[in-house]
Amino acid sequence: RVYCSGVLTISLLLAAVVGAVVPSLVLVTDDRTGGLSLDFHAASCPQLEGIVRGAVQAERGQDVQVTAGLLRIFFHDCLPQGCDASILLDGEKTFGPNASLQPRALQLIESIRAKVHAVCGATVSCADIIALATRDAVSLAGGPSIAMPQGR
């Protein structure tokens, strides 16, 4: 179920990066999203969106290529079996095409995870952090503004 939602999200983010005209979108929660919701972390980590966006914005100020790096991490994580943050496992990061993932983007995800967990505890999954960081990077690069379902 999450696989289908991930494929749709990846398609939208890729369209934004390659310059396709995509209006602002809201991905709605229904039976195809596997129980994801737009307000999944509203009570457990209300600061989540601000922490992620602030960190991505600061990193993009240093290196705009981090957008491409995050998008590639998101793509490699979500296909073929759904978004689960397995791409962050040491064995996965060095396997085949994953070995050339952008180290700066991987460090950004780890930095965001540490900040979020310091503020909210371990309530937010790394898969959600990857998805939100990628969404924010694409939006900051001029792509669409997507309401990203959470709860991976």
UniProtKB/TrEMBL annotation:
Ca(2+) binds at D77, G82, D84, S86, E92. This is Plant heme peroxidase family profile domain-containing protein. SUPFAM superfamilies: Heme-dependent peroxidases. It comes from Zea mays. The active site is at H76 (proton acceptor). Belongs to the peroxidase family. Binds 2 calcium ions per subunit. One of its GO terms (cellular component) is extracellular region.
